[in-house]
Amino acid sequence: MTRRVVITGMGAVSSLGMSAPETMRAMAAGKDGISALEFQDVERLQIRIGGQIKGYDETEVFSRPELALYDRFTQFAVLAAREAVAQSGLDVSADPDRAGVVLGTSGGGLQTQNENFRKVYQEGKNRVHPFVVPRLMNNAATSHLSMIHGMTGPSYTVSTACASSNHAMGQAFQMIRSGLSDVMLTGGSEAMLCFGGIKAWEGLRVMSKTGCRPFSRDRDGMVQGEGAAVFVFETLERARARGAGILAEIAGFSMTSDASDIVMPNREGAERAIRGALKDAGMGPGEVGYINAHGTGTTANDRSECRALQAVFGTEIGHLPVSSTKSMHGHLIGATGAVELLACIMALREGVIAPTINYTGPDPECDLDIVANIARRGKVGATLSNAFAFGGLNAVIALRAAP
Amino acid sequence: MTDNLEQKVIAIIAEQAMLTPEDVSPEATLDALGVDSLGLVEAIFAIEETFDIQVPFNANEPGESSFDISTVQSIIIAVEKLVKEAR
């Protein structure tokens, strides 16, 4: 018998808000979370906008010993997980081995690296803080969540660039479904908005200086964001037995590899992932009521993603609402799929479909029903969330409304 | 200068122990103050930064280093020695 997997808690921090409900309200309102970047040496960058979390003082939230060990990406994960666990009412103390943590991140503790490289290379210092390594390692956030919440089962970090958190959540889902675990904290966290982080991205020349306008005719690249979203996944049986509120069901997951190019997306790889998620969920194309697109705002991704969706859904795609919330919160790289899952949950629970803001007009190469600028109401029973990473690694998650 | 050094070392250890400096007596061991291995490594980093010295300390074998960490007083004496040598 296949074990069904549901979401019983969610937490998030992003430039749209410091909680999951606040982030969802902002998505529903079409809030623009992109602003002028603020950090040391920003004046040496060409790209100076991003979905940066402002007005957040880490010293108000964490103690000095915690901050000695928590890079910004870990801080975000801890805050999101705290919210998700509180909402879920989760307590794993009776069987901690059956609970674990799988998070996605691309940069890990990049800010710790950035700061300490600056000290040793630029400032010529010969001594760094003793916790640089435990702070920067990509599994730091996962490990801290396991310690804070007492989860002693399978835990690890997934790093597949822009698909990291979708891969992480897909793995958590499969682990619960297959019986390896009963409950998982999963999602992703990213904090790449620092001089070194943006300078590296700038080199690729795929970043926009003006704004994130996915699928829009005048789009000119991606805009980065930062933050985290963490969810509680558990078996339907466990959730029901303890009377937990169910936010949605994870219906299916699929991952594919383009095996073609290290940066250029491939329609065929994306198409196979979308088809795979539908098949895994036992979901017909007609059941899907909303697609949260990867929609980065680059010329190549948006065109390729549209072709993949057209190939899977045929002419039906013209009536199927698609949006990219990256237009509001930016591209959170390894956390993006996790934050975007909130848009899927909002569509399923509230019948509110988040818009693609900054949309100025259709691109003939992106001929989809792009929920433009203003949220839409509609009953949605099932959703897909796409993530397609550099390196051609694709991960698509299918959700259904709570059973 | 020596008193000042003693106060600075005590302040560093107090911060790791999350105590006020008045509550850190020279006879106290790090264990008794609740300073764990991570706290010790941070304290040594802070001592190196404050006095611009190199502390011979290997976290793999904390007891084997020539830097005597058995009590607050022994750390103060060891730091005084290192500061003198560095001059």
Describe what you observe in this structure.
The complex is a heterodimer of chains A (403) and B (87). Chain A has 403 residues and is an alpha/beta fold. Chain A folds into 2 domains: 5-241, 3-Layer(aba) Sandwich (Peroxisomal Thiolase, Chain A, domain 1), CATH 3.40.47.10; 253-400, 3-Layer(aba) Sandwich (Peroxisomal Thiolase, Chain A, domain 1). Chain A has helices at 20-29, 58-61, 64-69, 72-88, 110-122, 132-136, 140-149, 164-178, 195-204, 236-241, 267-281, 299-313, 326-329, 336-350; strands spanning 5-14, 35-36, 49-50, 99-104, 156-158, 183-190, 227-235, 248-257, 290-292, 321-323, 352-353, 369-370, 376-377, 382-389, 393-400. In chain A, helix 4 (72-88) packs parallel to helix 7 (140-149) and helix 11 packs across helix 12. The radius of gyration of chain A is 20 Å and the shape is globular. The relative contact order of chain A is 0.19. Chain B is an all-alpha fold and 87 residues long. Helices cover 57% and strands 0% of the residues of chain B. Chain B is built from 4 helices and no strands. In chain B, helix 1 runs antiparallel to helix 3 and helix 1 (2-17) packs across helix 4. Chain A binds chain B through residues 64-65, 68-69, 127, 129-131, and chain B through 15, 18, 38-39, 41-42, 44-45, 48-49.
What are the key terms here?
heterodimer; A: 403 residues; alpha/beta; Peroxisomal Thiolase, Chain A, domain 1; 2 domains; 11-stranded mixed sheet; two-stranded antiparallel sheet; 36% helix; B: 87 residues; mainly alpha; Non-ribosomal Peptide Synthetase Peptidyl Carrier Protein, Chain A; 57% helix
